Amino acid sequence: MTHIHQITICGVGLIGGSLGLALKKAGFKGKIAGFGRPVTMEKCQRLGVIDAGYSNLAEAVADADVIYLSAPILTNLELLSKLPPLVKEGALITDAGSTKAVICEKGAALFTASSVFVGGHPMAGKETTGSENADADLYQGARYALTPYSRHHLDPPIVREFMQWLDRIGARILIMDAEVHDEIVTWTSHIPQLVSTALAVSVLENIRTPEDLELSAGGLKDASRLADSSYRVWRDICLTNTENLEQALTSFAQALEHLRDSLRTRDLENLFDRANALRRQLKPSAAP
Question: CATH number for the domain including 244?
Fold first, then answer.
């Protein structure tokens, strides 16, 4: 029995837009609606990302079986607060934000009856944003964390069906605790972004002229790639994962000090060996 006839994407940018395209490519025959500014909705319909666009939240979610929040995190939290009287009975509300503890606790408090909130985080993305950069294959092979407040939140048939669609678009589901998720992605996602940002600012402040950048090769471009990311997105991540980030940045600063103190010692080789070991773990392994 099919339970999902309409999915409404609130925040049709790179992630939400890619979900719409991926679902269509995977054979979803239901309605994919979007919620956002009228000009954005018109563009998304023109791009084929959504079937219908709404600028009124109540109209956008009234018939939705799944509401997918893929705006910046603080916007998702604001939208979440407005949804309880608007969604129909039995709906699934989920999100795609990069931090999970705050929104999962709020979702569990807001949806205690027939509707259910299940947090989500697709480990996929680009430095570029916007629906014009949406990619039907963005989720292929990507880890997709689901962080239910309680395991029984995964039991409703509509949640199971949504998980099946995630599988069909190529996502690799990982079910985990929201706080554990935030602790892990602090190091695997958030710190890399902040380090790249700090590196770019440091280089900019220390070169004498723009022409000095002509002496850079691929290393600077690779290491500063994430510095292209949107402040608005990362502001919300930092505000909802502050404690973990403060601890991680302190640890990273200590690592930099250790590196500085090791420049004239053999311990520098040990640091390079350990860094090389991480790179080997990150390289894709052959399919079994």
Answer: 1.10.3660.10
